[in-house]
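Good morning,

Attaching, inline, the backbone tokens for the sequence recovery test we're adding to the shared suite. The designed sequence is right after.
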């Protein structure tokens, strides 16, 4: 198996782990929905439109880019996901969909931008695994 194939397989394993926490709420009014592998790795959140004005978020898109990436990287499992995306030469899209169906906001980061991140040393035990015993 080539290094590229190993990197892609590692990315897909981490995607499965991250998706197992699909109901987790990160902040008030934001719900993690899913993450998937496409041309880029796409992380999808749902924003409660009674709390968030999707048009205002779109207008503040440039200011939100670094803040939202920092928020994603603050979680060890998401950092591992982004690090795996870099190894697989993929970019990242953080997508916010409105809960009432309003067109959302998409923030895209190129593989080159992500490659400039100083990742912490990845330790698989840092990934928050679901508790299947409950």
């Amino acid at each position: 198996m080539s290094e590229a194939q190993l990197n892609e397989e590692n990315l897909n394993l981490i995607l499965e782990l991250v998706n197992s926490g699909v109901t987790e709420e990160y902040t008030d009014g934001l719900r993690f929905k899913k993450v998937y592998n496409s041309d880029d790795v796409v992380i999808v959140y749902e924003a409660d439109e009674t709390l968030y004005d999707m048009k205002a978020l779109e207008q503040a898109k440039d200011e939100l880019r670094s803040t939202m990436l920092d928020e994603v990287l603050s979680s060890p499992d998401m950092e591992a996901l982004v690090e795996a995306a870099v190894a697989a030469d993929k970019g990242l899209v953080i997508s916010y969909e409105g809960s009432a169906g309003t067109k959302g906001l998409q923030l895209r980061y190129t593989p080159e931008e992500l490659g400039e991140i100083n990742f912490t040393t990845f330790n698989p035990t840092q990934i928050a695994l679901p508790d299947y015993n409950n």
